[in-house]
Write a structure and sequence with these properties.
homotetramer, alpha/beta, TIM Barrel, eight-stranded parallel barrel, 10 helices, 14 strands, 17% strand, elongated
């Protein structure tokens, strides 16, 4: 931490700050500036956010953190890229771009099996589908719950695709984990720390979506929550942040991909369906995400989007998804990756 | 809903849309414009978000919702202002401005009792304090949990102030409800629907904080979640939204107060401590919130902010809080309210 | 500036950085941390943003500025509050809350004189009105230009109120200055540096509006542009920033008022009309701005808002404005100010 | 426009609205809903924003625009993609991805010529460089002005590359136009309507950057300003918007590319240097922009970024730029484009 003193702060105030820094287990180091003093507090500040409280002290103007507050997620701690194994056939973070595709919600056996076969035939590696749905309105369809999990399992059997599905409540995490190959934490729960801790206690890969107004640093802190409980198998997913722009449902922040690649060893995928909220823009943003360095994609596909019970406007029909996968191969190759 | 057709959309496409609107239980009404047709779909669209899926249909440019999607929270359903009773002595939404004050976290018996007495003497009506803390870092202090609830109860006994405290996990909601007078849903859990449903099943007043990137409409939808489970005792709390500005921790959106007053009958309070993140600005924003029409305030007070285990920089010392309460009386009076 | 080295950066890299810091005229000061070195560069960094370029050097992780980049606008340079004289009768920044009211655009002689008399009778101190209008659409009414200035002058004669009006082009600044008592720089031109320099060369008070996505620091840098050309008579105006919220046209950032009061000696006023974009919310936000410490208000008043050629939805009718002024007196008094 | 009446609005109020709609030259069309009436106003609403003023009328809840407010920039008016000719050799919007590269500011003859040759050899099609610099601080380097234009012309002579440079003041637009091949409007001037009109009166291609907090619709309205003055040669440039994220200087909104491609016939390029503010991320975002459908790129290249007088941290060295161009060919090919 760097503690910036006010211009003309009294020596007494500075001495109090130095004393407090030592009490907290850091070594202070004063730099005398032309108009003010600046104090470096040397010591591992991670996990000691308490230094921030120095801002309340007399004569202190501001406290500036220097170190990133995460450890396990950091590239400084683990230099080599993590490869997260989902099944024997599917791993995220290696040379293969992993595509997870399927409907927003599981609606019926026919729908999920038909879609699973379609996305498999187009080249997808995993099936996605919601059984527990966090909907903004209490009057919207809330998902088929355990029945949805059973249908997803049946679709896995038929198609051979492992599946990822969302968990929304610590109380049902274990139940979902019995069925699913990968557990998704949705954007609205990205700082639901009770839920993060719960999935951290399992040994099941976790797909962690970025919250709508989460900074990249906070995103990595949420990953750190899962990892600090013992589960290192975390895949990050950029899915759009909230900005003033309304032409898209969210603003897909693709620059988060190279930034994350610089800061963490965890794999990073992108969700252009939620990121744009409009099927017209999904293909362009899927290509762009791979070009930006994404390790995978999550894409909504629905055989009949006009009758979907959720997220119809952003779902691709299987035929359009197949075209997207064709073209995507070229972008994967341009990135020295396979699809 | 208004369905806007593309300029030059085929008659066939329009007919398909009309058919689909009827299938969904609405009555379509076409307006022929100079360059395009616009279709009104008449019927109660609340709870039928499914109309949005028309956006996937051929020839449709966009679908524009007209009605607000909430019912129970709406002023159209209940015209008169709701007054939420916490105890025989304290109600939020009446002529009295209700002030809830106390530390961010309960740290020790001495700390919480000392603070409770100080804020009571300064004129606060309720005590606030966190026993379960949703902290961004897994390495930060996570709260005293049930022990914290016991200390809050002791402070209530000594000071006579009822207390509000946060719930973070559906699994512990009932436990917290046994101790607390009011349950707080924090900003990070404002769209944790599992948690919202759980507090909706109790008969305990709920203080619902606005999520950091929640629109006012989504905020009311979260209130609707609680209310649709049967619990009508919801108080809304504006606590700052996330914007590009970094001079304050969040941007306290005081205009949300008159907007909410126009749309809902639920009481609205403001939290200038989290809203600014800096004790220097708390008093000014507390006065402004009351002038804007707030029904109450939540303010962090800590007897020793430099040693606080969380949120030190935004906590007021008891002496400053007492001065704030003095001046606040004038603003309450200017608003025809009492303190 | 603080230069943060990468963990494990080579000694050679650090030496290069030290050399470069000295070349740029600063004195380097190394703090050896547990995982990395941090270098303080001592010297007045204002006007030498070039230090930022150290971020390109090998082994450097980031460069963190410490000092605020403005001087003349800063409270460190001038401690006492500035009072900006507009006429013998009107000054902004003293004990009186100054209210500037009038239509968005000057439309006709009748309209501007009628409104000037109405706002004067209600207690306003200055007239506002646009002759040159920066409109988002080239097809919208662009203002009466010099004819508008003549009408404003006539309204000043009749009502006795001095007027403030917007300048949009360096080429017409001098012309406007011949008529107006105060020159307004609008939000869209808040970083139009050619325009800022031009008004800085005059000796006419300037009302500088905050840009829609300007940080408070950038806002003060724009004031610094005007002041560095010699014109110290700058009044700042918070008028709403752009956020994700759409219930209001902008988000009026009232916390900018106490923040600015802490950082600058310049007076600060608020514009609740543009800040909310909806006349329903103007009074509440006007009271709140004064409670937050504003030195004045700018409010749109139109005698016939339904027929206004711009900004009708946010304009108050004279009768509503008069009621607002009545109630505002109470809030001014609660703030130890007069109206 | 759609005018939404309040639930239970009086018939008298509705009749007033109908009358006013007719007065304004539109044909009203009432839809009787279950709880409220909705009125469609038929007629070309572009250039008649005045309908918005209906929001002030009694009984009106809101006014919802339906048509886009731009004409000349719209794909509805001109279906085929525009190709903007800069010189006989360089056109933007055709099958070739056009790359404009060079330093942020022109600093010296040696610097600009050296850089021009380097970017030409790496495959760039145009030179970029600032002679007039809109800097946030009045104390920062403001550009070499006309001397800079002379140096850019010399670099053009030596390298054969046409150049684009920024205009910041209507008073110097004609001077700049005598030297430059393309005129750039910077982000801070994107709603400087006096400047937009001025470049609209010339017959010189214009590179229009998106303002930091401009919606896509407003961006197209700024293009409309230029076009409505007669200059149709406009190229749009996405260069990052302002959001809460601070890991990058701006958030490069690549989804703006497919959205713009759907709405306008004008070419769209991206600026990953300003968009990220950090040279580490430039290559990834350049590839992504092309994959998203961009017609070109603007990239900052400086032979000695550590000594650059502006924007050092985001400038690439020539060797890194050459590598970027190599890899970019693959992404251009994957997009069926050439480089």
């Amino acid at each position: 931490m760097i503690i910036v003193m006010k211009a003309g702060a009294a020596k007494k105030d500075r001495d109090e700050v130095l004393k407090r820094i030592r009490e907290l287990g850091y070594k202070p180091h004063v730099i005398h500036g032309t108009t003010r003093d600046v104090i470096g507090a040397v010591g591992d500040e991670r996990g000691k956010l308490v230094l921030q409280s120095l801002e309340s002290m007399h004569g202190v103007e501001s406290v500036v953190p220097i170190l990133q507050p995460y450890k396990l997620a950091s590239k400084e701690v683990k230099r080599e890229q993590s490869v997260i194994r989902v099944t024997d056939d599917v791993s995220v973070g290696g040379s293969q771009i992993v595509v997870m595709a399927g409907p927003c919600s599981v609606e019926s056996e026919e729908q999920i099996i038909e879609t699973a076969l379609a996305v498999r035939d187009a080249g997808a590696h995993m099936l996605r589908g919601g059984a527990y749905k966090p909907r903004t309105s209490p009057y919207s369809f809330q998902g088929l719950e355990e029945e949805g999990l059973r249908l997803l399992s049946k679709a896995r059997e038929v198609s051979g695709l492992p599946f990822v599905t969302e968990v929304v409540n610590p109380e049902t995490v274990e139940l979902v984990a019995e069925y699913a190959d990968m557990l998704q934490i949705g954007a609205r729960n990205a700082q639901n720390f009770a839920l993060l801790k719960k999935v951290g206690q399992l040994r099941k890969p976790v797909l962690l979506k970025r919250g709508m107004s989460m900074t990249i640093q906070e995103f990595l802190m949420s990953a750190e929550y899962v990892m600090s409980e013992g589960n290192q198998a975390v895949v990050l997913c950029e899915r759009g942040i909230r900005t003033f722009e309304t032409a898209t449902r969210n603003t897909l922040d693709l620059s988060a991909i190279p930034v994350l690649k610089q800061k963490t060893h965890l794999p990073v995928i992108a969700d252009p369906s939620h990121g744009t909220g409009n099927y017209h823009y999904v293909a362009a943003m899927a290509y762009a995400a791979v070009a930006a360095g994404a390790d995978g994609l999550m894409i909504e596909v629905h055989s009949d989007p006009e009758h979907a019970s959720s997220d119809g406007p952003q779902s691709l029909k299987p035929s359009k998804f197949a075209l997207l996968m064709e073209r995507l191969k070229l972008f994967a190759a341009a990135s020295d990756r396979t699809l």
